[in-house]
Amino acid sequence: MANDNMRAVVQHTLGDPDVLEVTRVPRPVPLPTEVLVRVHAAGINPVDWKTRAGSGMAGVLGAPPFVLGWDVSGVIEAIGAGVTTLAVGDEVYGMPWFPRAAGGYAEYVTAPSRQFARKPSSVTHAQAAAVPLAALTAWQALVDTADLRAGQRVLVHAAAGGVGHFAVQFAKHLGAHVIATASARNHSWLLELGADEVVDYTTTRFEDVVAAVDVVVDLVGDGQDSTSTRSLSVLRPGGVLLAIPSGAAPELMAAGRQSDVRVTGFLVEPDGTALSEIARLIDAAVVHVEAKSYPLDQVARAHRDGEAGHTRGKLVLDLTPTQAADADVDRTTAFYEIRRYQAHPGRRDDLVRCMEDVVLPFVRSRGMSVTGSFNDEQDPDGYLWIRRFDSEADRVTQYAAVYEDQQWTAEIGPRVLTLMDTAKAVITRAVPTPQSPMA
Question: Do both 327 and 369 map to the same domain?
C-alpha cells in the first residue's frame, strides 16, 4: 500500500468527550481468515461513551491509549488467506471483535471474515453502520434468548433508542403484540415501526396500564426508577425479563424466581449469519433504520449528544472517502513519480495551486500569518514544498480542531491530509532515506 497509516480517533486517557483525538495510526494488515475493510461509516453506541469514561468495556480494553468503536460499514480492500465467503470490493457491515477492541473509529479495520455480512443494498453505509450492535442485541435477545413466538406480548423499554427501535420491528415481524415505552414525541414514529401500544413514561407508570406480558426487553435498567424490578409485576408466570444495560443483579434474579419469571442479563456477540438475515429484512423494507451522521472530527460532539439522551435511532461517524481526495492523491502521486525522473515538472503546478487556492486562503481568512513561498529553483525536488505543506496543514488542522471549524472538517482537512501523506510516502519511496530531509 502506498500509504501505511490512517486517520483514527484515539484516546490517551479516560474522561469526558474532549479526550477523543483524531490522529494518525498505523493501518492494520489482515491475518489469515481476516479481511481489511475500508470503513465508510462507524456507529456510535452507549457502550462507547461508557467505555471512554471508564466503565462499559474499559476493563476489557485495558488502559488507554485505544481506539473506540465496534459498528462499521465499508468496502473490503484486502483478504487474508483462507477467506472464501467474501471478496475484495464487497460492501460489508459488522460488529467485529466485541467486546474486545475493534478500533471502529478509524479508516480501516481488520477482523475475521465471518464476523461481517454483506451490507443491505438498499441503505447507505451510514445507515448500515447504525445497525450491527443495536440490531444484533435486539435479535439475539428476542430470537435466541427469549425464543419469542407469534402471538406473545412484548414490552420494550426505551423503544425509540438504538436497540429499542430494532426490538420493536423484530418483535412485530415475529408476530408479537408490541408495547413500547417512549416520550410522546416519538409515539407516532414507533407506531409506524409496528408498535401496537405506546406508553408515555414521562406521564404514566407503565405497570398501571400494562399487564400479561410474555417478554420484557428492558433497555433502561434498575438504575433509573427501578425499571427492571417494576417490570416483574407486568410479566406472566413463565415470562422472561431481559435486563440488558445493567445486567441481572442477584436481588433481581431472586425476585424473579419468587414471581416465577426468568430474569437474565445479556451481552451481544458478533454474528455474521444473523446480520445476513437482518440485511434481508432491511432490503425487504420490513425493518427501517434511523441514523444521524457526524464528520469524524466531530466525534466529541457526537458523544455529547448521545450522552444527553433522548436521541432517536443511532448516531454515526462519517468516514466516506471523497472523490476530490482521490483525485488529489492521483495528482500527487503522478507529480512525484514523474518529477523524480525529470519528466513533465509542470505537474507540480497542480499541487502548488491546491496549496495556494485552498489551504493558504483558509489560513488567511482565520487571521493567521502566512510566510514563505514555493520556488522551483530553490526546491528542485519538492522537499521544501512538502515540509511547508506539512507545517501549514498541521497548523490549520490544530486551529480547526480547537474551534471545530465545519468548513475545514467537511471540505479542506481531509483533502490536505491525504495529499500530504501521499506526497510523503511517494517521495520517501523515490529517494533513498539518507538523502531525504523527510527522514
Answer: yes
C-alpha atoms less than 13 angstroms from C-alpha of 303 in its C-beta half-sphere? 23
In a domain, 280, yes or no: no
Helices marked H in 54-161: 58-61, 125-129, 132-139
pLDDT, tens only, 329-340: 333 333 333 333
Count CB neighbours of 143 within 10 A. 15
Three-point CA angle 142, 305, 127, nearest 5°: 50
**Inside any domain, residue 270:** no
Whether 336 and 299 map to the same domain: the answer is no
Cis peptide before 65 (omega within 30 of 0): yes
**Residues contacting residue 80 through CB under 8 Å, at least 6 positions apart:** 30, 31, 32, 33, 34, 35, 113
**Residue at 139: amino acid letter:** W
Using alpha carbons, select from 99, 90, 82 the residue that is nearest to residue 37. 90
Q: What is the DSSP string of 336-379?
A: HHHHHTTS-GGGHHHHHHHIIIIIHHHHHHTT--------TTT-
| 326-329, long-range: CB < 8 A, 24+ apart | 328/354, 328/415, 328/418, 328/419, 328/422, 329/418, 329/419, 329/422
Domain of 181, CATH number, reads 3.40.50.720
Query: Are 145 and 260 in the same domain?
Result: yes
Q: How far apart are CA 367 and CA 352, in angstroms?
A: 21
Cβ atoms within 10 Å of 271's Cβ, excluding its own:
21
What is the predicted pLDDT for the residue at 408? Answer: 55
Is residue 276 one of the residues assigned to a domain? no
Q: What is the pTM of this model?
A: 0.73
* Angstrom distance (rounded) from CA 430 to CA 436: 10
* Adjacency order of strands within the sheet including 213-218: 197-200, 177-182, 153-156, 213-218, 235-243, 262-265
Overall domain count for the chain:
3
Low-confidence ranges of the chain (pLDDT < 70): 1-3, 310, 322-439
Enclosing domain of residue 425: 323-435
Per residue in 279-318, pLDDT (tens digit) is: 999 999 999 998 999 999 999 999 999 999 867 889 999 9
Note the Cα 16 to chain centre separation in Å: 18
| Helical spans, DSSP H, in 175-246 | 187-193, 206-209, 227-231
Task: For 9, list phi and psi in degrees, rounded to 5.
Answer: -95, 115
